[in-house]
């Protein structure tokens, strides 16, 4: 490949080097059943060296970003083996020609070793480790295929990351069970050394009548009969979860610990692009690529109807800049119901992720986010604090000043009682 072209819009992909293959069997995982899209021997679900070469070359040559980020997900990506990722680094150097290239990998941590952690450190990988809180929270759903909890294995992997000084953050899925333990989870994550936290609400729309070869989890716009799963978080519980963590964070931890949900709200307050797509006005610039080169509109929209094509047949540039993908991204804004457009919190959430827009508005219009009541609860509670932080930033003062302000506000409230 010798001709360099540039994408009209910056984009990135979540790469699945082993497809949906994983050593765990988490009850709430939306990706495990994607194996039904590729009904072959699971041992063949591995990105080939040839396809990897094509993917890395196209990603580098089409990127307009000053920093090119490669994100490796699964399933469990380390199953693909260290040789694969050593080849990743070799190919990035081959095609990068001086470009700034970064790698991140999302792992459940149970397969990490000293060698893996040395590799991540030496090659500047950012490691996202999936941990749902203390043992009773984590093991409620995150289990091995024999039903045994994975907490001990995850903690061993996390300890190795700390030991080898690997940069990491934590991702916690918030489900019907652990949503009731927000303070315990937040304090536990801090105790592990996590300073950057993401709390991902579990919302899955399932067709319980799906046949053996059919996907049971459905996209939001599915016409099939569907309902939320048993492990889906209750909207009010999720709102309370965010409120309780926020209250501790805003009094003690601003500037020391970072919660991506809070970063997004503050960014939208400031009118700057939020760090993740769920809070942006539009999306469509974060696709997913499967082990065989199939590209989908989004990691949460790996369904046949959202397949854009394959990079062995069409370039990433062609697929991600296609009219179909452009419309997918704009639909996030354009298909908001009137109920949302009139909402005073719209600028803070922008309807959140389209995958969660599975309920009707009070007047019967489809497309309302399932978590809407919880988000409203959180935004109403946190509004004055974010308003204060935004004002501090506009005047070039640290937003951490909010901690003293929050404390004085609390004392004033107590004095008036």
Tell me about this structure:
- By secondary structure, this protein is α/β, with parallel strands linked by helices.
- It has 14 helices and 14 strands.
- It has helices at 49-62, 82-96, 114-122, 135-138, 151-163, 182-191, 235-252, 260-270, 316-320, 323-334, 338-341, 346-349, 372-394, 402-415, and strands spanning 12-15, 67-72, 100-107, 125-130, 168-174, 196-201, 205-206, 227-228, 258-259, 286-289, 294-296, 307-310, 359-360, 366-368.
- The strands form three sheets. It has a ten-stranded mixed beta sheet with strand order 9-6-5-4-3-2-1-10-11-12.
- Helix 1 (49-62) packs parallel to helix 2, helix 7 packs parallel to helix 13 (372-394) and helix 8 packs across helix 13.
- The longest helix has 23 residues, at 372-394.
% residues in beta strands: 5-15%
Mean pLDDT: 94
| Computed Rg | 21 Å
Order of helices and strands: EHEHEHEHHEHEEEHEHEEEHHHHEEHH
Biggest sheet, spatial arrangement of strands:
9-6-5-4-3-2-1-10-11-12
State the helical fraction: 25-40%
Beginning-to-end CA distance, first to last residue: 71 Å
Count the strands? 14
Query: What would you call the structural class?
Result: alpha/beta
Residue runs with pLDDT of under 50 for 5 or more positions: 1-7
Question: Which sheet architecture does the biggest sheet show?
Answer: 10 strands, mixed
Count of alpha and pi helical runs? 14
List the helices and strands and how they pair.
Elements: E1 12-15, H1 49-62, E2 67-72, H2 82-96, E3 100-107, H3 114-122, E4 125-130, H4 135-138, H5 151-163, E5 168-174, H6 182-191, E6 196-201, E7 205-206, E8 227-228, H7 235-252, E9 258-259, H8 260-270, E10 286-289, E11 294-296, E12 307-310, H9 316-320, H10 323-334, H11 338-341, H12 346-349, E13 359-360, E14 366-368, H13 372-394, H14 402-415
Parallel strand pairs: 1-2, 1-10, 2-3, 3-4, 4-5, 5-6, 6-9
Antiparallel strand pairs: 7-8, 10-11, 11-12, 13-14
Helix pairs in contact: 1-2, 7-13, 8-13
């Amino acid at each position: 490949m010798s001709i360099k072209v540039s994408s009209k819009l910056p984009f990135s992909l979540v790469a699945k080097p082993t497809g949906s293959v994983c050593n765990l069997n988490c009850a709430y995982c939306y990706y495990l059943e994607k194996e039904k899209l590729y009904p072959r021997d699971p041992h063949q679900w591995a990105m080939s060296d040839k396809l990897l070469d094509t993917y890395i070359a196209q990603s580098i040559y089409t990127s307009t970003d000053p920093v090119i980020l490669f994100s490796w997900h699964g399933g469990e990506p380390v199953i693909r083996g260290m040789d694969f990722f050593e080849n990743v680094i070799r190919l990035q150097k081959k095609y990068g020609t001086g470009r700034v290239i970064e790698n991140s990998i999302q792992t459940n941590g149970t397969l990490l070793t000293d060698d893996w952690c040395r590799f991540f450190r030496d090659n500047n990988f950012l490691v996202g480790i999936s941990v749902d809180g203390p043992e009773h929270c984590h093991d409620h759903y995150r289990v091995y295929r024999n039903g045994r909890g994975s907490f001990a294995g995850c903690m061993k992997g996390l300890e190795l990351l700390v030991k080898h000084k690997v940069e990491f953050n934590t991702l916690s899925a918030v489900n019907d069970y652990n949503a009731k333990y927000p303070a315990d989870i937040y304090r536990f994550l801090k105790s592990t050394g996590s300073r950057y936290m993401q709390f991902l609400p579990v919302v899955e729309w399932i067709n319980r009548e799906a046949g053996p070869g059919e996907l049971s989890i459905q996209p939001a716009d599915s016409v099939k009969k569907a309902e939320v799963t048993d492990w889906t978080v209750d909207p009010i519980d999720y709102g309370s979860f965010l409120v309780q963590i926020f209250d501790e964070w805003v009094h003690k931890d601003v500037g020391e610990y970072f919660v991506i949900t809070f970063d997004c709200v503050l960014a939208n307050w400031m009118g700057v692009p939020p760090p993740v797509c769920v809070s942006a006005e539009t999306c469509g610039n974060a696709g997913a690529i499967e082990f065989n080169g199939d590209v989908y509109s989004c990691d949460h929209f790996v369904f046949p109807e959202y397949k854009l094509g394959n990079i062995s047949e069409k370039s990433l540039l062609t697929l991600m800049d296609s009219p179909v993908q452009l419309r997918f991204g704009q639909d996030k804004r354009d298909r908001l119901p009137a109920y949302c457009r009139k909402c005073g919190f719209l600028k803070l959430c922008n309807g959140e992720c389209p995958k969660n827009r599975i309920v009707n508005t009070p007047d019967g219009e489809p497309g309302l986010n399932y978590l809407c009541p919880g988000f409203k609860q959180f935004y109403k509670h946190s509004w004055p604090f974010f308003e204060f932080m935004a004002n501090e930033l506009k005047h070039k003062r640290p937003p951490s000043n909010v901690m003293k302000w929050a404390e004085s506000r609390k004392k004033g409230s107590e004095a008036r009682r």
